[in-house]
Specification:
The complex is a heterodimer of chains A (about 270) and B (about 450). Chain A has a single domain, classed as HUPs (Rossmann fold, 3-Layer(aba) Sandwich). Chain A is built from six helices and eleven strands. Chain A has a nine-stranded mixed beta sheet, sandwiched between helices. In chain A, α2 packs across α5 and α3 crosses α4. Chain A is globular. With about 450 residues, chain B is an all-alpha fold. Chain B is about 65% helix and about 0% strand. Chain B is built from 34 helices and no strands. Chain B is flat, with a radius of gyration of 28 Å. Classes of the chains: A alpha/beta (about 270), B mainly alpha (about 450). The interface between A and B is medium-sized, with 20 and 24 residues.
Chain lengths: ~270, ~450
Amino acid sequence: MKILVPVKLVASIDEDCELREDGRDVDPDFLDYELNEWDDYSWEEAVRLQEAHGAEVEIIPVTVGPAEAEDGLRRCLAKGGERAIRVWHDALEASDPMAVARVIAKLAKRENADLVLAGTLSSDHGFAATGMCVASLLGWAHAAVVSRLDISPGAERATVRRELEAGLEEEISVQCPAVLTIQLGINEPRYASLRGIKQAKAKPLEVVSHIDLGLEDAEVGESGSLSRVRRMFAPERGQAELIEGTPAEQAARIAAIVKQATGGAQ
Amino acid sequence: MPGDVTFQNLLGHSLNARDPFLAAACHPHANCHDRRALESILFATSKLKRQFAVARYTPASILDSLAEGRDERISLRVAKHPSTAPATLAKMERTTTAQDLCVRVAGHRNTLRGTLENLYRKHPNSAEIKRGLCNNPHTPLRLLRRLAADAAPAELKGVARNPEADAVLLRLCWDRGDLYLQAEVAAHPKCAPDMRDLAERSPHAIVRRKLAQNPALEGTVLMRLLGDSEAQVRATAVRNLSKSMIAGLDSGGRDPSSQVRRDQARHTGLPQSWIKRLATDSDSWVRRLIARNQTTSEEVLYSLADDAVMEVRRGVARNPVCPMELLLRLARDPHPWVRAGVALRADVVEPLLIELARDKDIEVLSALGKNPNAPIEILDRVILHKDRDVRRAVILNENAPRRILCGLLEDPYPLNRVMLAGHGNLRDEDLLGLMHDPEPTVRFAAAHALAVRSH
């Protein structure tokens, strides 16, 4: 069973960040990158499957991003897996989830993957769409917000649990191959050992472009996207109240706000 | 890095490696010439400058250099950084006219009085700067008086809290203030006796509560406040009582408010009659505070060791005067939090620690890891535990020997390695290894420890 795990480095920003001159994104000087938290869980799930089934399972982290994105792949390889794939070309810049999904779907076909484990969403843009788009493009079954996974190599179906509203969960049987988007808390991701980090540096990391995968420029980047960012801005915060005064005065004001919000006596 | 670690070879290594985090650790200890060389690494990109301007660990010397860059966005961050030195803030005040920056300097706790006076002289009409000055504990009395003359009520609240304020200024605040401002005045140690009288007679509980908090309050006033109708006032007065004053009281432990009784139970030097009464209090917080109280007699501790509430029994286990016989009993308590309380104690005999080491609970094992008298065989096992917090307990153990600590040099959890770098029992050669760690903060911590040692 071959499992493809799309991962990405996400940007974390300070509250006092500044925007780019074109007003469509944050100034890169204010961005720090880290592996998307959801992808940490999906990769851990893949590593556990490989540990449970040994050589029957191959796990491959993949990313769509420039050279800096390799850091995310190496972090995955430090915990498990023997190879990784990065897809990049300048034409991929400004790709939306659908354009990224086209790349991942092509990669899944090329690799004859049996399962794609994606994060439910990414913490920077939060579309929660890439995994579902991949499933749609491949014509595979899909399940979102997966909180438990039970699958064996060669099985025709996987049993998954999904989180629903109001604390409910549902257990469903999914036809394989499938795309599953993994929810936080499905497992406890491990920290990479120092030896693992060193070994990861020597593991093969293939770099391909969308053209190598059979995609045209028009199918990726801004032209291949179904949405584009028009502007990014910090909205006016009309609801916010800066509580001033002495500590006792501030405490009294907070108490009054809580009373008001909870419908208590004034 | 060959040979003994001197600062010069640490510096040379940092420059050769061109690692900003090693450079940051060396910067405070380097001379002017070497600092310039380190800064070519530290400030190689605007992103690095921004990161160092906000990072909590950034030394004051780097902040000073960043402030010299004249980049207003960076300077604003430096002016907000708690480690920025008084001289840096003074330099900023001298060289900038930017209002935002002056506001930050005016409110910074490290800004000294000369700089604050200059700010007022240059910006006498800026409301934001004046507010910063009113709240700054280094603003001199002379300037506070000037500020108070035309200050808005919100600014006066800063003046009333300011340790430099005197009785005259506090009187002005009282006369012009609402009850919150009067409450601040009542809490100030320099509040004049006649204003304290006014505060004591105030119909507002908040004013009387803040008065009860005043560290300069006479014992007689405190005693009267112990009889206040409001529990919050009585509780504050109890907290302010000295050991000798509380020993002289004869009606303790009977207050209808559990908040007051909790504050009574916290006091050491309580009369035994109080302790006996509070030890059977219906409020478990009162009992757990008595269980932890060093004045509590052995007899009472024995009875509290049978308390149904686990936290009370834990309090007994943590009490330094708890007898060994009772500790032996508590070491077999059904609740792991109580057993962990015993395992934390440095005065426990080794056989008991070995018995506790058979425990599977992570709280007990963490406590053993931290115990400065834990035998090496126990620490050997704790460092192999799968839980990162349990392993970290050994790093927090000042007596952990180097051989044990070396087993954690490759701990997978980065925070453990950061903390390990600060352990005094590691040798220089161990720290040199950590300087090649993939985690930047570990490299900084290791280089910082070496730089401090080499000075």
